[in-house]
Every structure is written in structure tokens, then in C-alpha cells.
Amino acid sequence: MCRGLSCSIEIQADFYSLANCFTCHRCQGYIKARMKSEEKRRTRFHSGHVPFSGIKTYVDPDTYEDPTQAVEEFTKEIDPSCIRIERVIGTGEFGEVCSGRLRLPGRADIAVAIKTLKGGYVEQQRRDFLREASIMGQFNNPNIIRLEGVVTKSRPVMIVVEYMENGALDSFLRTNDGHFTVIQLVGMLRGIAVGMTYLSDMGYIHRDLAARNILVDGNLVCKVSDFGMSRVLEDDPEAAYTATGGKIPIRWTAPEAIAYGKFSSASDTWSYGIVMWEVMSYGERPYWEMSNQDVILSIEEGYRLPAPMGCPVALHQLMLHCWQKERGQRPHFSDILTFLEKLIHNPSSLLTLVNDVQRLD
Ligand code: ADE
């Protein structure tokens, strides 16, 4: 179903006020980013640790000669007797995903999701499987899926994470089409922006940000999940091979990342704009039935997704800002977060819908 009035429009919005809002924050962001990299360089030179600065950097597990060390450093081993598997809720590339309960000594039991590594794996598969845990174990943020721990000293090998009652955001929105207020939808987008601000501050590039990789809890809190980059893309049914052999979810990916593999927090911002569109259209497929090749060509010609039905103008303008061809012109996640919080604190800013503006023209 096509919710927009036309399937593609050229960027034509007046970005004056939006650009103004971003310019001042961009300068601050630039200064902050410079201070951060200076400080990181200084502290790394001395000890490799960042004392008292509050700045933490993500460590790529691939930089460890022995990836088992990364697992030991960033994850907690769980005794399998603490885990009760209840039911199968899905299948991943490596094996089943189950729901269940975790009861750690001296703690109340909690609902968890358990990813298992199916038997018959080779060492490389075990490493790839546990790679995600050693990435997730480095994060601590209310909008990033929380790792409870791993089971590596007995079989099956498992990754245990917090349970998210409403599952993946794309299917959750499709089964609840039209059921939320604009403020609730913006609240979901705010949560994702909080998680992405944290990841970009840590120096982590997600590369596969999409509604299918966001999980939703029972209170509508959205959390970023699916870490592991190359593995994530292997696992993602949306990822297609490019001419240069990379496997990329074309509809969610920035043009420079598709064309020459330039992934960055700015390419994550492009994907965030697509997630905004997915949320405001209740899980519609971006660019509908267009082929990947047509999507690439249309974007190159300057076409962008139109506003979903009932979408506030301010949100569509933010999407268009995330989809600027020049990656340096796209907002940082902290800018996106500031902008969304202003909208939430001033709900009348969300009353002008794109459809109303089109009717006045
Ligand atoms: N599916 C995959 N991971 C999940 C989780 N953490 N909670 C609920 N469903 C999931």
C-alpha cells in the first residue's frame, strides 16, 4: 500500500529553520569531536585507559589476536543452571532464538532471550557467533539491548540478552497499524536516537540500522540490537551483493556506503532517516516494490521518499536532512536527539501535517 501522495519527490523543502537549528549544534559537535579525539589520543598514548574523562571508546573484537580474550574481557560467563529455556521464538543464522528466565544467585529472576549456537559448528562460526556478545558487552545504555552474559564453557554455547516483549519494531508496527499517537511514534524515534547517539559517541558504526533490527519492550521503549557488522549483514535477508562484492541492505544504506564502502556515523544517520520513515508509515517497505537498482538510480537523481500519510512536516524535513547527498551536511545523532526533544516538549510543532500543506498549495 502506498501511503504517500506520490511515490517519489525531489528535495525541495526549505531547510532554513532546520538548518539553523543544526548549524549551531554542528559547530559545538565539531569542537566536542576535536576535543574527544585529542583526549583519546593523549590518554591512549599513556595507558590505553581513559581515567575520569567519562569518554569510553568501543574496542573492535577483531583487533584481538585471540577473540576469546575479547569475550572474556567484555562478557560475563553464566552458569547454565541459572537459565530456564521456555520456548523457541525465532531462528537466526547460527541456531534457534528462545525466550526463557534467568535467575542469577541473589537476584530476582528476569525474562531473557537466549540465542543458541547449533551443534556441528566450526571454530570460525563459534567466533563469529560470540563476536556480537563481545560488542554488546561493551555497551551500557537504556536504548541498547542489554547483554546478560554468555555460556561458553558448556554446550550449547549461548548468548543471553534482556527480553523485549514486543519483538522487532517493523513487525510490531505492521500488526498495530494506525494505533499510536504521533507523540508515541516520536517517543520511539527519540529512544532510537538516544541509542544511536551513544553508539556514535563510542565510535561504533552500526551499518545495518533498520526497524527490523530495533526491539520494542512492553512499555514501547525501543532498543538498538543486532551488532556484529559483517555477520549481521550475512544474516540480514535484506542485504544484497553489490558490484564490488559487498553485502548491503541497499534501501537503508547511504549512497557513499553503497558506492565505495564509506560507512560512518553519517551513513548511520542516513539509515536513521529511513527508520523514521518506516516508523511514521507503520512498517511500510521503503521504496515499495522498486528494485534495488532503481532505488540506487533514483537516489542518485535526487529523488527521496515522500512523507508518509499523516506525517508532521517537521519530521519529514528531518528525514530529508538525514538523506543529504553530502554526508558532512547530515545531522549528527546528538542534533537529531535535540531536535526530537524540542518537538516532544512543544507538541503543537507536530500539528502541521504534510498532507495539510499539500492541500493548501
Ligand atoms: N528476538 C530476538 N531477540 C529478542 C529479544 N531480545 N527479545 C524478544 N524477542 C527477540
UniProtKB/TrEMBL annotation:
ATP binds at K115. Keywords: ATP-binding, Kinase, Membrane, Nucleotide-binding, Receptor, Transferase, Transmembrane, Transmembrane helix, Tyrosine-protein kinase. It is a single-pass type I membrane protein. It is found in: Membrane. Its EC number is 2.7.10.1. Pfam families: EphA2_TM, PK_Tyr_Ser-Thr. SMART domains: TyrKc. One of its GO terms (biological process) is axon guidance. InterPro entries: Eph_TM (IPR027936), Ephrin_rcpt_TKs (IPR050449), Kinase-like_dom_sf (IPR011009), Prot_kinase_dom (IPR000719), Protein_kinase_ATP_BS (IPR017441), Ser-Thr/Tyr_kinase_cat_dom (IPR001245), Tyr_kinase_AS (IPR008266), Tyr_kinase_cat_dom (IPR020635). GO terms for cellular component: dendrite; plasma membrane. Residues 83-344 form the Protein kinase domain. The keyword Iron-sulfur does not apply. One of its GO terms (molecular function) is transmembrane-ephrin receptor activity. The keyword Transit peptide does not apply. It catalyses: L-tyrosyl-[protein] + ATP = O-phospho-L-tyrosyl-[protein] + ADP + H(+). PANTHER family: EPH RECEPTOR A5, EPHRIN TYPE-A RECEPTOR 6. This is receptor protein-tyrosine kinase.
